[in-house]
Design a protein that fits this description.
The structure holds two protein chains of two kinds. In chain A, 30% of the residues lie in helices and 35% in strands. By secondary structure, chain A is α+β, with helices and mostly antiparallel strands. The radius of gyration of chain A is 26 Å and the shape is elongated. In chain B, 35% of the residues are buried. The longest helix of chain B has 39 residues. Chain B has five domains: 182 residues, Four Helix Bundle (Hemerythrin (Met), subunit A); 81 residues; 182 residues, 2-Layer Sandwich (Heat Shock Protein 90), CATH 3.30.565; 129 residues, OB fold (Dihydrolipoamide Acetyltransferase, E2P), CATH 2.40.50; 125 residues, 3-Layer(aba) Sandwich (Rossmann fold), CATH 3.40.50. Classes of the chains: A alpha+beta, B alpha/beta.
Amino acid sequence: MKVTPRTLDEAQEDELRVLLERRAERLRELEQTEANREEAVHWVAEFPLGEERYALPLETLRAALPLRMVTPVPLSAPHVIGVLRFQGQVLAALSLASLLGGHGWRQDPAVLLVVERGDGELCAVDCEAIPRPLGLPVGAVEAARARDEGPILEVFSDQQLVHLIDPPRLFTRAGAGARHGR
Amino acid sequence: MAVDPLLQGLVVGFAAEAQEVCQKVTMDLLDLERGGLDTEALNKAYVRLGRHLHTLKGSAASLGLQDLSEIAHKLEDALAPLRASVQQMPRAVVDILLHGLDIFMLRVHAHADGRGDSLPDYTAALAQLVAEAPPPEQATAPSPTPAPATPTPAPAAAPTPATGLGFGAHPTMEAPRDESHAGADADGAGWRVSARQVTTLMREVERLREVRLRTEERSRELDRVVTLLARQGLLAETAEARTLLSGVGRAMRSDGEETADIVDALEEGLKAITTRPVRTILEPLQRMVRDLSRQLGKEARLSVVGAEVSLDRRLLEKLNGALVHLLRNAVDHGLESPTERERAGKHHEGALTLRIEQQGNLLFLESSDDGRGIDVARVRQVAESRSLVPTEELARMNDNQIRDLIFRPSFSTRADVTDTSGRGVGLDAVRAAVEALQGRIEVASTLGQGTRFMLTLPVELGSSPVLVVRVLDQMMGLPMLAVEATQLTRMNSLRIARRRAQLEYKGQLLPVVDLGSRLGLRAAHMPNEGQPLMVISAGGKRVALEVDAVVGDRDLVIRPLPAEVRDVPSYQGAATLSRGELMLILRPSWLVSDPAPAASLTPQSRRALVVDDSLTARALHRAMLEAGGFTVHLASTGARALERLLADTYDVVICDLEMEEMDGDEFIRKVRERPETRELPIILVSTHETGRERGRAAGADAFLSKRECASGRLLAVVLDVMSRGGGRA
């Protein structure tokens, strides 16, 4: 069989094609990874409560306010701190530590987070510091959701445990006057 | 057949107008049927009826709705002999006219929905109507028995103006009785807006109100700055700044006043858009009561008190169904037959009453009858036979609880199912409707004398006068309507027996209620000489309410409370004070009610005082201690806590170390100075571990960091300290 040797130009073209294909493959992989990474993140507002880290889904958070102008409501349920005005509405301010069934705290809460309860209404919960945005892997959140039936999902992220609050589960139960543990 | 959209629009507009006119005709017919009108009133009623029917005829004809025009014409014919002789209207004629109106409205709605072509031939209904009508000579006679009439040929209706009455074919030409609400929807010049849009506007108005409050606050701050500058001496360098600031302050006050006017105007405007008087829903109810009592062979008269009260249209629509149920129930179950009533010494005509009253943000609606009342024994028997409640539970229930069983689904005392009752659907639906509106329903009944259903519902619109009082640190509002009198305590006007005080008031002895202890803020308290006492009246009961101070009266918009505290019976809402903070409005019916015997009020229960300047910390400590069976009182400063210790006795004190005015170690020192509290167990808490040494030095019995205050831990330490009888750690 007669073999026709490749010319230099042809050989260079082949190498160039292979090289370009490899680069394209790497870019596709990179793009895919980035896309996966973006899709896989569940944004939350993370804050400390005592020695632990808690978080609320960012889409449920409506505002963070200084904890003042709250009127106590005598004879209300123990988890109710009081009522306050927010954009023309009267909201209840609730103690998160109390809602969670009694919890130590490092510093007296000075911030109120206005949260959508999940039934179209708003309420406010106290926290020790202004929360910071944090991305949690969707996979980890879904796994926690499948595992935990209560209002708190234990999500592991970067070797740390974050207690993700599920507002509809938490506040629906609070509305019924029940106490909560994890 | 293709419908001209313009014409169809006119027909829809006509339907709304016809509905209103028919409602007025119905009300007049029911008045005429009841009788008791003098000649002048009769004459006026007949003239009105004639105008209304003519209006209907003319408007229908002008739109080419020949069937409607002819029906209206026939109704005019039925009325004509009575108009001529001005006599009481016989029931038979009322029946025919009401029946004719029903046919008229059914066809109106069909035309408005574009179903006019599929309507059955009206001539048969018309012929029947004419056949049932009494002849003119009989119609004018008072006999209620209808007699067959000779049918008269129906003349072609045309929009001809009636002679001598001065009105034309168009309904808007006549003056409606309810002018404020008739025009807007009917003339086609209005807008259709969703409830959500209006609610959003209401919230924006409330935000504007908050802006006004903030403007007032800024204005006050500016005044303080000017005063401070003036204190620095009247230096020439600051003179210009002071003048400028004074000017800005004046301008801000003026802006604040204008904003207040705008807020008021907006709220009034929104109220006009979103409310309508209760009387607008009464016509179908009157008609329903009349028809049902006729059907059941009973006689009933519905009276309404408070028909002029304007309510949120959505609320009114939702209430309508509940009122229908209540009134049907009253006619069917409550009222006896005329013979039975006369035997029982009652008037043969049963009296139904609807009473509507708005107090602040609460609507009170009462539906009562003077019928046979609820037979508790029968209700108990039915509940048992249908296994609605376990037998043991039933045996424990008192009469009120048994009476409440009538609100249970499927409950009916009827053994058979009729057109009107027996299916057990009714009162449970009423309760569901009321609860869906965040209201509540109660029933009171006396056997043989009648039944009263009382509905309490929150309403969102309108301001009301409120008396602001102070108890300890907290301002509270009292609806002025419930405040009958205010006076200062004179010990010689009190009667004190067994640690209970009573006030002599207008020949009555009223129980003295300490608001602070009723709210769980302090232990029971006897009024001191000169302390304000308010006579509160609600639901026929009165109490003398003891408060710490009367701040003054305000006209406030009372807002409903959020879901988390809505069920606390003490409050009916909250209102914003001038500095922007919320104030709770007390519910008078709660104030006059007997306090529930709670474990916390028994002398055996242990009492704890929590002293912390953090609202959330106080709430948390309270939650933990209450869970452990303690009665907990709160103080936000050391000074307030010392006052509490002078007035009350406590088993333990939980005190924050770092507080602004008086810190924990100073507080402990002051407590230890008094012989009465020298041994009182005190637990010091702090966010800092370093407080442990300070606590020990100050004489605390135990120390806990707030991070250790998890559930159970605080309680364990408290119990430990108490068991040691103090005993410093």
